[in-house]
């Protein structure tokens, strides 16, 4: 009999009581607090991926033909778009590593508890941010491939 439904994330952990539907969320104390290495590394990977994706977007926008920045040198604009694809590819790989690593780690932790017949009254589940991180990183990777391989 499941008593509660637990959702773990990088920034908080929520527990929903299955009997009355009450949901409580605990924010992790601080970004700088002592956390397990897996959380710190995953946060670092995801934040770096976000920053790289933002940088790639800025470079891509400046490299568009309709933008008057460096209008007289189309070769440089093409290199900017190519560079944006490379930066976006690096960010997408970091994002995929971070989100997949965290998802696999939560799954392995749950599987280990089940294999040792330890029941905590908790059902582990992935949050939306985990799935969105994987989907967004995959989309960025596809865009990176298109920018680097199909750009003329």
UniProtKB/TrEMBL annotation:
Gene3D superfamilies: 1.20.140.150. Keywords: Cell junction, Cell membrane, Membrane, Tight junction, Transmembrane, Transmembrane helix. The gene is Cldn16. Pfam families: PMP22_Claudin (PF00822). Its main location: other. The keyword RNA-binding does not apply. It is a multi-pass membrane protein. It comes from Horornis vulcanius. The chain crosses the membrane at residues 82-104, 126-151. It comes from the Eukaryota. Belongs to the claudin family. This is Claudin. The keyword GTP-binding does not apply. One of its GO terms (molecular function) is structural molecule activity. It is found in: Cell junction, Tight junction; Cell membrane. Claudins function as major constituents of the tight junction complexes that regulate the permeability of epithelia. One of its GO terms (cellular component) is bicellular tight junction.
């Amino acid at each position: 009999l499941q008593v509660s439904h637990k959702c773990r994330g990088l920034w908080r952990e929520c527990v929903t009581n299955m009997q009355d539907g009450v949901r409580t969320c605990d924010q992790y104390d601080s970004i700088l607090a002592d956390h397990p290495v897996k959380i710190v590394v995953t946060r670092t990977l995801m934040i770096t991926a976000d920053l790289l994706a933002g940088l790639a977007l800025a470079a891509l926008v400046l490299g568009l033909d309709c933008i008057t920045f460096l209008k007289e040198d189309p070769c440089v604009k093409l290199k900017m778009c190519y560079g944006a694809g490379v930066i976006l590819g690096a960010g997408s790989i970091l994002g995929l590593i971070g989100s997949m690593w965290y998802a696999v780690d939560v799954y392995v932790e749950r599987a280990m508890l089940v294999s040792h017949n330890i029941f905590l009254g908790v059902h582990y589940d992935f949050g939306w941010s985990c799935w969105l991180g994987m989907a967004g990183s995959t989309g960025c990777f596809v865009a990176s491939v298109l920018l680097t391989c199909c750009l003329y």
